[in-house]
Specification:
Blueprint (H helix, E strand, L loop, with lengths): L2 E6 L26 E5 L21 H10 L4 E2 L8 E2 L2 E6 L6 E6 L13 H14 L12 E7 L3 E6 L6 H4 L30 E8 L2 E9 L13 E6 L3 H10 L4 E2 L5 H9 L5 E16 L9 H10 L2 H9 L3 E3 L14 H6 L4 H10 L6 E8 L6 H15 L3 E8 L1 H9 L5 E6 L11 H4 L12 H12 L8 H14 L2 E14 L2 E2 L17 E2 L4
Parallel strand pairs: 1-13, 2-11, 2-12, 15-16, 15-17
Antiparallel strand pairs: 3-4, 5-6, 6-8, 7-8, 9-10, 10-11, 12-18, 13-17, 13-18, 14-18, 19-20
Length: 534
């Protein structure tokens, strides 16, 4: 197969892909044939997670990428990044100087896909439902600054906040704030299985085998009223077991495009070919990977153990040997491209140093080697995860200070076990809900954090997070954001490892690939079309 690589540069601050050599999205798909997109994301309904596609429960990049096609939100992140813009809303904004009262006016003639009209009371119902259900995924915490939701007539919704929150418009652009039909979605329980209804640009037909979603067919919603231009009639999202199987399907023409998660070897091969049948789109991303700790577990309860791991792990070697140019070392939970980033871990620990790590353990009276098991998911973040954890094991064991084993499990098993505190140390990834430093800190450190972490720092929760949210100019919030990052580097409830790029490989006849993912890894299927690339 012939290939060419397209590199999309970033703008300073928020990362924005720029359309390059992929054709115009205006041509669209006029033949009604589905554009087929491959993914290795696994979608499973289980006893622990029976409602994977309920907006009040879903909280991972894969399920959110299904919801974003089908469930409409008041606001949406714009095509070229930046501040959120109205979607189901005609207009939204703070109506007070303290960023505590936020009002939205709905678009006229909004309807669910089944034709039922949407009113302000439906929006209130949807938001209140997610807040009341408090699903154990922790997604409801995104709405934690809401005090009450008020309606005025059929078209106006007013959010009264407990405290100032300059990031609130971003939160209204996330699927947990999606508008659902009260006649379909029970206020007191989650909706099990893979049925999904909304007012977004597409309707969904799910193909399910053995409680797993193997194909999701998105068909253009004729009742859609919103800000998005839909450039195709139908898109199919098809699940594959691994990157090799997905790549083979692209080679054979069974799919038109593949996205997350391609293997590092696959990306290197695609990059090396220079012809024109397949475009590899290389764009900046905001994905991070990190180790998380159950700080109540005896093995890592001592801060010195966690600090010693931070002192030993060599991020540079990890990136170069496993991911190459597809990632870069990360020394904070906040990526380097986000306003408010600080290299707090490098500032505290510098380069890897076994002698310093040994000194930390000795001063704390910790007997070495410290025995640990690092847990990772085998099927959620790509095939390179195992290799990454094998290298982490080697680095820690080679220090002589640790005796580490590793253990992998599929996401359907891994995530519930992690939430129940079954793992002392485990690897996770984070794709931001929205591109702001707050979303790399609060979800890990605030009350009701999505990890279920027992770590609680009163200064972070009671002072610094609220303080940072009061400031609309995010650069002016850097002081409190930096202080949070410095505390994390000292206490190490999480240990950041690397920040990654993101890639799309597509048949050359598919247009709109430059915008099919934004920097938050949001899948924007409405951008895709068929036409002549140029």
């Amino acid at each position: 197969m012939n290939r060419k690589t397209l590199v999309l540069p970033a703008v300073i601050g928020l990362l924005a892909p720029v359309l390059a050599a992929c054709g115009s999205t205006d041509s669209g798909s006029d033949n009604g044939d589905a554009i087929v997109v491959g993914t290795t994301d696994a979608f499973t309904a289980s006893k622990d997670a029976p409602a994977p596609l309920d907006p009040a429960f879903a909280y991972d990049v894969g399920t959110w990428n299904i919801l974003r096609q089908t469930v409409q939100t008041l606001m949406i992140q714009p095509r070229g990044e930046g501040e959120p813009v109205p979607e189901a809303a005609q207009s939204c904004g703070f109506t007070d100087s303290g960023n505590e009262r936020y009002a939205c006016t709905l678009r006229k003639d909004l309807k669910f896909a089944n034709g039922d009209p949407i009113t302000a009371s439906d929006v209130k119902y949807s938001i209140d439902r997610a807040r009341a259900l408090k699903a154990d995924s922790g997604v409801f915490a995104l709405l934690s600054t809401i005090d009450t939701v008020e309606t005025q007539g059929d078209n106006e919704v007013i959010f009264h906040l407990k405290t100032a929150d300059a990031t609130f418009p971003f939160k209204l652009s996330t699927p947990v704030a999606g508008i659902v039909d009260p006649d379909i979605y029970d206020k007191k329980k989650l909706r099990d299985g893979f049925e999904l209804d909304g007012s977004g640009p597409y309707t969904l037909k799910a193909e399910v085998e053995d409680d797993k979603l193997v194909s999701a067919v998105f068909t253009k919603n004729p009742n859609y009223q919103g800000s998005l231009k839909v450039n195709n009639e139908k898109v199919e999202l098809r699940n594959f077991q691994d990157a090799d199987e997905m790549g083979a399907a692209l080679d054979k023409g069974d799919i038109d495009l593949m996205t997350r998660t391609m293997s590092p070897e696959q990306i290197q091969k695609l990059s090396a070919d220079s012809d024109d049948e397949v475009d590899l789109v290389d764009m900046s991303g905001l994905e991070i990977r990190y180790l998380a700790f159950n700080t109540n577990a005896p093995t890592v309860k001592s801060k010195a153990v966690r600090q010693a791991m931070a002192q030993v792990i060599d991020r540079g070697e990890l990136v170069s040997k496993v991911y190459g140019s597809q990632a870069e070392p990360l020394y904070s939970l906040v990526p380097a491209s986000i306003t408010g980033h600080s290299n707090s871990f490098f500032n505290k620990y510098g380069d890897p140093d076994t002698a310093k790590a040994e000194s930390l353990l000795e001063r704390a009276g910790i007997t070495t080697p410290v025995k640990l098991t690092l847990h990772y998911t085998t099927d959620h973040y790509g095939s390179a995860t195992k290799k990454e954890f094998e290298l982490l094991k080697k680095q820690l064991n080679d220090s002589g200070l640790f005796e580490v084993d590793i253990e992998g499990a599929p996401w359907a098993t891994f995530r519930p076990a992690e939430q129940k505190g079954a793992y002392d140390v485990y690897g996770m990834g984070w794709f931001p809900d929205f591109p702001d430093a707050d979303n790399y800190l609060a979800p890990f450190l605030d009350k009701d954090n999505f990890l279920g972490s027992p770590y609680a720092n009163p200064a972070i929760r009671n002072d610094l997070i609220p303080e940072s949210r009061r400031v609309a100019d995010r650069l002016s919030a850097s002081g409190s954001l930096t202080e949070i990052q410095d505390i994390v580097a000292n206490d190490v409830p999480v240990l950041p490892l690397w920040q990654g790029k993101q890639y799309v490989a597509a048949n050359d006849a598919v247009t709109g690939t430059a915008y099919v993912l934004n920097s938050s890894s949001t899948l924007q299927l409405w951008e895709l079309g068929r036409g002549v690339s140029g």
